[in-house]
Amino acid sequence: MCDSRPGREQAVNSRRRGRIGGRPARLLCVFLLCGLVLCGCGKQEAQTVRIGSLKGPTSLGILFLMREAEQDRAEYPYEFHMAKGADELLPLLVKGELDIALVPANVAAALYRKTEGGVSVIDINTLGVLYLVTGSEDIESAADLKGRTICLTGKGTTPEASLKYILDQNGLEPDDYKLEYKSEAAEVAALLARDPAVIGLLPQPFATAALMQNANLRIALDMNAQWEALQGEEAGSMVTGVTVVRNDFLAEHRDTVETFLEHHAHSVAAVNGDPDIGAALAVEAGIVAKEEIAREAIPQCNLVCITGEEMKDALSAYLKVLAGFQAELVGGELPGEDFYY
């Protein structure tokens, strides 16, 4: 804000000179008013946007934006909070301590239900990151998994739901295969390192790390490509991560949210266009342990910034599949139309 005290002092001096009613005094008042108006119309401090994300693939697309915010807070007025798990992030969003958050797609739907429609999804930030990794040469399609054992993490989670959907749509019954659950992706990767005959379902960057540890391994199936083949062009890809905004914040700062979407899109393009710098930033942020892993993994992470009807079509189709598997994955029921910005 402008400090108006110098203007008042000049006016007092004018009165003391007995010229308040004359032409010089009127001119002085005009100049003072112009100065106040110009001061008030100067560049206002941008609204600070508090952004939360997880230490995983869904945060890779904002790495360049995080760097820009460190270098120029005036142009990029963002504060970032990166958490290890959604259980740390979501309470902050619910309490209004975060404005925008990058979260798993099903978590966004569940959050919509928990907050009674208090959040909206503004973009898809990450498509499919799941890959079937093995050293077996006889697996070329989902149908080839009949009679096989697949190691994966998270019983009752989205990777399991996505895998079962793909297998079901390729004609496999639940009795045609066996799922072996591990506590974390690193455990599946360790099994693959010891025995290339193991079949593991891994997300990025764990899939890339497994390949780099054992030259006998390969990506047998890109689950995102498998999903797209089943869903067709209209519904689009498997969805891993989305970006949500608190509706209270959106109502007051719609232009700020639109600007963030532009910045997000530019950041995603920068990471995809320069995996070398992206890899360095990923290591610096603690998302990936080694630059060589990040460099190879980034192109496989399907980083995007999809908005509008394309976002709605892909996300709603994905959530419908999850709800068919287990309704609780999406908060008990599918979100309403107002979920999609």
Order of helices and strands: HHEHEHEHEEEHEHEHEHEHHHHEH
Major beta sheet, strand line-up: 2-1-3-10-4-11
Look at the helices and sheets and give the structural class: alpha/beta
Radius of gyration of CA atoms, rounded to a whole number = 27 Å
Q: In percent terms, what proportion of residues is strand? A: 15-25%
Measured between the Cα atoms of the first and last residue, the distance is 35 Å
Shape: globular
Number of helices: 14
Low-pLDDT segments, ≥5 res: 1-44
User: Biggest β-sheet: count, sense, barrel?
Assistant: 6 strands, mixed
Mean pLDDT level: 87
Specify the helix fraction band.
40-55%
Secondary structure: number of strands: 11
Task: Tell me what the structure shows.
The chain is an alpha/beta fold. It is 48% helix and 18% strand. The strands form two sheets. The protein has a six-stranded mixed sheet, sandwiched between helices. It has a five-stranded mixed sheet with strand order 7-6-8-5-9. The longest helix has 20 residues, at 254-273. The radius of gyration is 27 Å and the shape is globular. The model is unreliable at 1-44 (pLDDT under 50).
